[in-house]
Automatic annotation (TrEMBL), chains A, B:
Protein family per UniProt: Belongs to the spermidine/spermine synthase family.
Pfam families to which the protein is assigned, alphabetical: Spermine_synt_N, Spermine_synth
Assembly mode: Homodimer or homotetramer.
Record-linked InterPro entries: PABS, SAM-dependent_MTases_sf, Spermi_synthase, Spermidine_synt_N, Spermidine_synt_N_sf
Protein name from the UniProt record: Polyamine aminopropyltransferase
E.C. number: 2.5.1.16
Role description: Catalyzes the irreversible transfer of a propylamine group from the amino donor S-adenosylmethioninamine (decarboxy-AdoMet) to putrescine (1,4-diaminobutane) to yield spermidine.
Domain (PABS) ranges: 2-237
TM region(s), chain numbering: none
Reactions catalysed: S-adenosyl 3-(methylsulfanyl)propylamine + putrescine = S-methyl-5'-thioadenosine + spermidine + H(+)
Amino acid sequence: MELWYTEQHTENVQFSIKVEKQLHTEQTEFQRIDILEAKEFGKFFTLDGLMMITEKDEFIYHDMIVHVPMATNPNIKKVLVIGAGDGGTIRELTRYKTVEKIDMVEIDKRVVDVCREYFPQVSCKLDDERVNIFFEDGLKFVRTKENEYDLIIVDSTDPFGPGEGLFTKEFYGNCYKALNENGILVNQHESPYYDNDALAMKEAHEKVIGFFPIIKVYQAHIPTYPSGHWLFGFASKKYHPIKDLDANAWNELGIETKYYNTDLHVGCFALPNYVKHMLKGLTK
Amino acid sequence: MELWYTEQHTENVQFSIKVEKQLHTEQTEFQRIDILEAKEFGKFFTLDGLMMITEKDEFIYHDMIVHVPMATNPNIKKVLVIGAGDGGTIRELTRYKTVEKIDMVEIDKRVVDVCREYFPQVSCKLDDERVNIFFEDGLKFVRTKENEYDLIIVDSTDPFGPGEGLFTKEFYGNCYKALNENGILVNQHESPYYDNDALAMKEAHEKVIGFFPIIKVYQAHIPTYPSGHWLFGFASKKYHPIKDLDANAWNELGIETKYYNTDLHVGCFALPNYVKHMLKGLTK
């Protein structure tokens, strides 16, 4: 027999992967988790049927959500990560000796448990001594923090379901407050290509724009996400992602990466005109 | 009923589009042509079942294959285009008043006829007085030319079927000869993501490397091609695509584009590390 996983990228577009076997499925308090195995992508997992990470290309997303802010400010010491239950963002952060503390807030403990079991090469640094894991709602967690972090990474699902609160004005305002004067906020930012994703991107962006003096968007090629053209939001109190990049300093760290490099750091902020047009008045 | 077009991106990965209707199908002397209409992409056409262009995003491919070389050398006057039967590359070239002559060599006249009928907004400049259309084999055409063109654009299908000869050492050698001392060669260059596409990319690259002193690769987000991470080859006798870019000069031309801009021109040459690794020793 043939077994195919299909994600509806829109009502009229499907992306399908031939699956060798389903390794795990469960309905948690928050969402449905599935772990599948495929010849093309290795193991991959979905939440409520939507692709989260694959063994083949998780490095792209995790490189881009971590190394862009970390190279912008080499003095980042205290980091808050919201979501990120698979551990990939934590793995990349722990490669910096300068990072002293990482608070990770994941609403669904089952995501962490399952990823520890099936994706050891992604979750491998969740037990690093600098990491504190809180199984809570990120929205509530961040309300209690003030002037505490150098960097907040919002490694969330899409802006519906459990991730919904992480795309609100209240949440971004609390992130601003939780960051110190050097603070940077990076979040996954949907895609500009299909109408529904583009709408989610614009709505999220409209909500963050008021709080931070520097607001940028950068992009990466992530073939397993809808359209493969994926965006990240970069909001910052002081550091400019290009003007303040010290490429030599980052390269001297000797961190080997499969996607990120300091030329690409600059290049990824050069958006196509149609994307710039969508964001008109929403970056600064 | 539901009608779905499916392209196998690999043996184990499918990309499917819900189709409203099939507008045209024929088997020509060279290949099968299909024109389909879809809610998400508007009209699109395939050759031997593989996606060529869609109304929704053809601007991305055509912007990137034309404006990158044209902005690199603003004195391009004589252009040879191989393939490009849909007319999109010609449409973008004719926007430059400085271009004096465009020879277009398309092996399959039926592609041009059908695109004139179904894609008037793409084929609209095929009758520009500077354009000469030759229905011939591009491989043979270029053998007869010497020191004649400022730019050759190879807007071909994949390196199998009718496009196969356009990825050979003999072809690239003849292109070198057909170009004058300022000559630039740009070609569609497959994708780095799926193994088969990456192999085609490397093989093509190995064949062009000997002839030109400057060899680069650049990328674009084209969601309707396999993986959405598409590459273009840039081979040049004299002009360097970044060092010789005069961004102000290009911007003063006032050419409005939906994808290309001069920041992106620089950014698109910043490749991810895994792609650089594949091309190691194959760029210069």
